[in-house]
Amino acid sequence: MRIALGCDHAGWEMKEDLKPFLEGLGHQIVDFGTDNQDSVDYPDYALPVAKAVAKGDLERGIVICGTGIGSSIAANKVSGIRAALCHDTFTAEMSRSHNDANILCLGGRVIDMELARRIVEVWLNTPFSGGRHARRLKKIEGIEKCGEIR
Ligand code: RB5
User: Fold this and answer.
1) Using a 6 Å cutoff on CB, does residue 8 contact ligand 1?
2) Are 105 and 83 a contacting pair, CB within 8 Å?
3) Do the beta carbons of residue 84 and residue 99 sit within 8 Å?
4) pLDDT at position 150, please?
5) Which of 7, 14, 40, 42 to mutate to test the pocket of ligand 1 (most atoms within 8 A of CB)?
6) Looking at residue 20, what is its pLDDT?
């Protein structure tokens, strides 16, 4: 899979850990930064990841900040993005199966690397279930397009 990665300073260490892990699983990574632990603003990194995924240039995205909250708020402002903040494998699985999440948000200050790797693996390997869940996503699309459910 082609995966966009992005982080702020608080997520940098986790991004650097996940990069070789994901490559080892056979994925192609495009790294949108940041490139070190100097303080930066998470929207500057969540946005290019979200745009690349929304455009279809890359299939999935993973964004990491201190809590994952700011990155998820920012990424979800981009039309077509369903960014899910997950800190356990159950919600990671559900975010794919029920919500067809196309971006995973992680908190580098919330979970350890080992759990992050397990979450990422589950998230990448779980397909969308479709069916009634697709109907619900259509409603979200309606909200996104015209602020209404149609
Ligand atoms: C940076 O200190 C921190 O606010 C950021 O990484 C993130 O947790 C925001 O949601």
Assistant:
1) yes
2) yes
3) yes
4) 79
5) 42
6) 98
Stretch 94-122: mean pLDDT, rounded?
98
Q: From the CA of 117, how far away is ligand 1's center (Å)?
A: 20
70: part of which helix (H) or strand (E)? helix 69-75
Q: Which domains are delineated in the chain?
A: 2-146 (3.40.1400.10)
Q: What is the pLDDT of residues 119-129, one digit of tens each?
A: 999 999 999 99
Say what the pTM is.
0.98
C-alpha distance from residue 19 to each of 2, 27, 73, 90, 120 (Å): 12, 9, 23, 22, 11
Angle between helix 113-125 and 89-97 (nearest 10): 20
Confidence check: pLDDT of 62 > 90: yes
